[in-house]
Amino acid sequence: MRTSLTILGLESSCDDTAAAVVQLRNGAPHILSSVVHGQSALHAAYGGVVPEIAARAHAEKLDSCVEQALKQADLGFSDLDAIAVTAGPGLIGGVLSGVMCAKGLAAATGLPLVGVNHLAGHALTPRLTDGITYPYLVLLVSGGHCQFLVVRGCADYTRLGGTIDDAPGEAFDKTARLLGLPQPGGPLVERAAKTGNAARFGFPRPLLDRPGCDMSFSGLKTAVLRARDDLVAEQGGLTRADQADLSAGFQAAVAEVLAEKTRRALTLYLEDVPEAPVLAVAGGVAANRTIRVELETVAAEMGVAFTAPPLALCTDNAAMIAYAGAELFRAGKQDDMTLAARPRWPLDQGSPALLGSGKKGAKA
Ligand code: KG4
Ligand code: ZN
Predict the structure, then answer these.
(1) Residue to substitute in 172, 174, 320, 321 for testing ligand 1 pocket (most ligand atoms within 8 angstroms of CB)
(2) Has this prediction a pTM greater than 0.85?
(3) How many whole angstroms from 70 Cα to the centroid of ligand 2?
(4) Residue 225 CB: number of other CB atoms within 10 A?
(5) pLDDT tens digit sequence for 169-222
(6) Which domains occur in the chain, in start order?
(7) How many alpha carbons lie under 13 Å from residue 218 in its C-beta half-sphere?
(8) Ligand 1 binding pocket, CB closer than 6 Å
(9) Which parts of the chain fold into alpha helices (H)?
């Protein structure tokens, strides 16, 4: 087996254009560079990601992100072994921009092309950042996704449950919009919640009364809307304290639902795989400290090791795509010029599809 593998990764499935170089040395990953060009400013006026604007901006910025990633890694194309690219799921225009760029680079350089599932990038991040071994349970929680996955290999995932409607990140973003905070809303709701009273509004804990690991966040979003409308009707607007209390109440509800569903998912997982008691969390919402602490507490209660990536690798980036691509390539996966961009692409092909489509694209 080769001792070193150097992969360029591209990511453009939502509102971050990213390129990164990751090297596997004797199997151990090293991030040589990771460039992320966010598009928040372009979408700010619209209160959410506009797919057409996102796709055009990705097409414009991908080349310079690749150039920067190679420069920061101090490498040229001749030093690479392959090019990995997010081929879905996500906003189709953005995914297409990335796939076309990667195909162009592969054709020009003769390098192998590897299409990567964006969710695999998130799900494998705990291996990139903490070197954890298979198998493990991951809670993937982001702007477009929310699911528990048993990860047994880079192409072997079993879903134990997931959201039946909105993803938590989507609900954080919607809550921010309702409170007049800018996008992406997660970090701002988290900040506002710091000084808030989480008990002031009795927000619901959806689906906790039902067995299993499925989750729902759209009713919670509606509860925030109602509470806000009541306050506006009574007082003519929201005070800072109201903003803080609504944020804290909403965040506490999300954290409690995730914690309880994690308890159940861990119970199921441990029945099946008692020899590998490891819980990982990944995706943009994993950057939330309250949620991380809740999950860590559940893991500790159940005697399970807990791992969460550093904040910059929780949200979308290309290092996770390069790393997933490296694992797949090492396992013999390679694509050709027929590689397709896929708006939907469930990791666990065997589990029933989740319905619906959110702001961040089709749900897997
Ligand atoms: O993984 P990600 O970058 O993109 C997707 O694949 O969806 O996740 C972005 C989502 C956004 O909805 C954002 O509001 C949320 O992650 N997010 C947070 C925090 N940081 C980012 N949500 C809650 N608290 C945070 N600190
Ligand atoms: Zn993501």
Answers:
(1) 172
(2) yes
(3) 23
(4) 14
(5) 999 999 999 999 988 899 999 999 999 999 999 999 998 988 899 999 999 999
(6) 4-126+313-362 (3.30.420.40), 133-312 (3.30.420.40)
(7) 9
(8) 14, 142-144, 169, 172-173, 184-187, 190, 283-285, 287-288, 315-316, 360
(9) 40-43, 51-73, 92-109, 118-130, 168-178, 186-193, 218-235, 240-272, 289-301, 311-314, 319-330
